[in-house]
C-alpha cells in the first residue's frame, strides 16, 4: 500500500482520510493546523504564547493559499509566498520565524504520511543586513569611565564600585556576564555551603590581568589598564567596609550580594545620563568601544579577537567595518576631493 493512501491520524482528532485532506478546503486545512497545534501542546509541552505564534503563522499560510490544500503545497509555492512576505516589508527575522513554523508543520504532516517531502526544506529567509555595533567615541568613552556621577555621593561605595566596573568594561572588553561573575581572587574549594566551588573569573591586581570564562567555557586572560587598576584598588579597599553576603564576589550590590547584570545596566545608563552623554549607553557598548578603539590604534585584528574571546575571526571583523565607517566620515569631512559634485557639474 502506498504511504499516501493511508488515513492521517491527528492527535486528539478522528482519523481523516488522505483523500479528504488532499481535497483541500478551509475546514480540512484548519483540521490539520489544529491537529499539529494539539501535538505541540500535548507532546512538546510548548507554552501557550509559543503555540499562539505558531497558530498565527499557520493561519496566515492557509489564508495565502486561498483555500487550496495544505497537503498539496509545493516547494515553488513556498518560495513564492516567502517573496510575497518580503515584498510586503516583513523583516528577515519575521520571515525566518514563519518559515520555521511552516517547516515544523510540514515535517509533522510528512510524519502523518500525508506528505512525501517537506516543501519548506531549502527555502530560507532573505539575508539580514548586518548592523554595525554601536560604539562610543573615544572622548565620550573616556569621560564615561573616568568621571564621577554628580548624583552619587563622592567616594561612596557605590561611586567607587561603579567606577571600577566601568573602567574594567572599557579597559578589557568584558561581557557584562563575565564582569558580574568575577571574584576578588581565584577560589577553589571542595565544599562551599555544601557544594564545590571554583571561580569562573577573577582579578589579579599584581599581574594587572583579569581572567574570565566566556562563551563555550573558554577561559581567557586580558590585560587591565592603569586607569582600571587604580579604580579597582580603590574599590577593593572600600569593599572591606561593605558586609558581603558573597565573600568571593568582586562587585557587590548595596545589600552586599553579588551584583546582577540588570543592576549594572541600570547604573551605567544612569551614569551616562548624569554626564550628559546622549547615547543610550549599555554595558556591551563599552565592549564594542574597547574593540573599535583598540583596532583603530593597533590594526591587529587577531589580538582583538583573542581579547574579546571570539571563537571565529569573522565575529571580530565587523569592527573593521566600524573603523572604515569612521575613516569614511573623516575623509568626507576633510578630503578636498571627497565632496560630491552638484548635478550641474559645478
**Low-pLDDT runs:** 1-22, 340-346
CATH homologous superfamily placement of the largest domain: Intergrase catalytic core
Terminal residue distance: 79 Å
Reported for the largest beta sheet, the result is:
4 strands, mixed
Helicity level:
40-55%
Indicate the radius of gyration in whole angstroms. Answer: 28 Å
Overall morphology? elongated
Structural class: alpha+beta
Proportion of β residues? 5-15%
* Overall residue-averaged pLDDT value: 82
Give the tally of β-strands: 6
**What's the order of the H and E elements?**
HHHHHHHHEEEEEEHHHHH
**Number of separate domains:** 2
Proper CATH architecture of the largest domain: Orthogonal Bundle
Strand order of the largest sheet: 1-4-5-6
List the helices and strands and how they pair.
Layout: H1 18-22, H2 26-42, H3 48-65, H4 75-87, H5 92-111, H6 138-146, H7 157-172, H8 176-180, E1 182-183, E2 188-192, E3 195-198, E4 201-204, E5 209-213, E6 219-223, H9 226-239, H10 261-274, H11 283-298, H12 301-308, H13 313-334
Parallel strand pairs: 1-4
Antiparallel strand pairs: 2-3, 4-5, 5-6
Helix pairs in contact: 2-3, 3-5, 6-7, 7-9, 7-11, 11-13, 12-13
Structure commentary:
There is one protein chain. With 346 residues, the chain is of the alpha+beta class. The protein has two domains: 109 residues, DNA polymerase, domain 1, CATH 1.10.150; 197 residues, hpI Integrase, Chain A. 51% of the residues lie in helices and 7% in strands. The protein is built from 13 helices and six strands. A four-stranded mixed beta sheet has the order 1-4-5-6. Strand 4 and strand 5 form a beta hairpin. The radius of gyration is 28 Å and the shape is elongated. The N terminus and C terminus are likely disordered.
